[in-house]
Amino acid sequence: MDRAQKEQLVDELGQIFESSGVVVVSHYAGLTVAEMQDLRAKARDAGGSVRVAKNRLAKIALEGKPCASIADLLSGMTVLTYSEDPVAAAKVAQDYAKGNDKFVILGGAMGENALDVAGVEAVSKMPSREELIATIAGMLGAPASNIAGAIGAPASNIASILSTIEDKAAA
């Protein structure tokens, strides 16, 4: 890898560190190619990405970035799992670590906040952006449906009373 390629890689990593809602750092020693492809696919499905980069270049890219606190975690065979959604990458990494002993979470960063292993686990248990949006939409829609039900209820009650009276009169 020549100097120009290294500079390009540092720029790409810098953009990742700048724009990601969460970055999780893990060791992946012993993972097979198929297992790594599986991790990448799961991250992609959740809206995240997985990146293996040289630690030295990643540390250079971290300089001056909000998540610079993860520089201490970059040693050995590390892989970065990241996403714009502050929860997606943490969920993917945590779920994958549960099913594979070779994948060990070291920590991460959520903006300027450094996360240890417990912090990554706590973030992974939070609802995702889509789940929060669905919950809020449901809460906003509930009062309207309650009002519509309350307005329609007297009419249906009157209709059922009239049909009961009609049935008694016919009998």
Name its key features:
single chain; 171 residues; alpha+beta; Alpha-Beta Plaits; 2 domains; 5-stranded antiparallel sheet; 58% helix; 16% strand; elongated
What does it look like?
The protein is of the alpha+beta class. The chain folds into two domains: 3-126, Alpha-Beta Plaits, CATH 3.30.70; 127-171. 58% of the residues lie in helices and 16% in strands. Strands 2-3-1-4-5 form a five-stranded antiparallel beta sheet, with helices on both faces. A hairpin with a 2-residue loop joins strand 4 and strand 5 (113-115). Helix 1 crosses helix 3 and helix 4 crosses helix 5 (117-124). It is elongated and about 95 Å long. The N and C termini lie far apart (95 Å). The mean pLDDT is 85.
Spatial strand sequence of the major β-sheet? 2-3-1-4-5
> Could you say which overall geometry the principal axes of the C-alpha atoms support?
elongated
Mean pLDDT, nearest integer?
A: 85
Helix share of residues?
Answer: 55-70%
* Individual helix count: 6
Gyration radius, in Å: 26 Å
- Biggest sheet character: 5 strands, antiparallel
**So what's the CATH class of the largest domain?**
Alpha Beta
Overall number of structural domains = 2
CATH superfamily of the largest domain: Ribosomal protein L10, N-terminal RNA-binding domain
Calculate the terminal CA-CA distance, rounded to whole Å.
Answer: 95 Å
Low-pLDDT segments? none
CATH-defined topology of the largest domain: Alpha-Beta Plaits
Give the strand content.
Answer: 15-25%
Q: Encode the helix/strand succession as letters.
A: HEHEHEHEEHH
Structural class: alpha+beta
What is the CATH-assigned architecture of the largest domain?
A: 2-Layer Sandwich
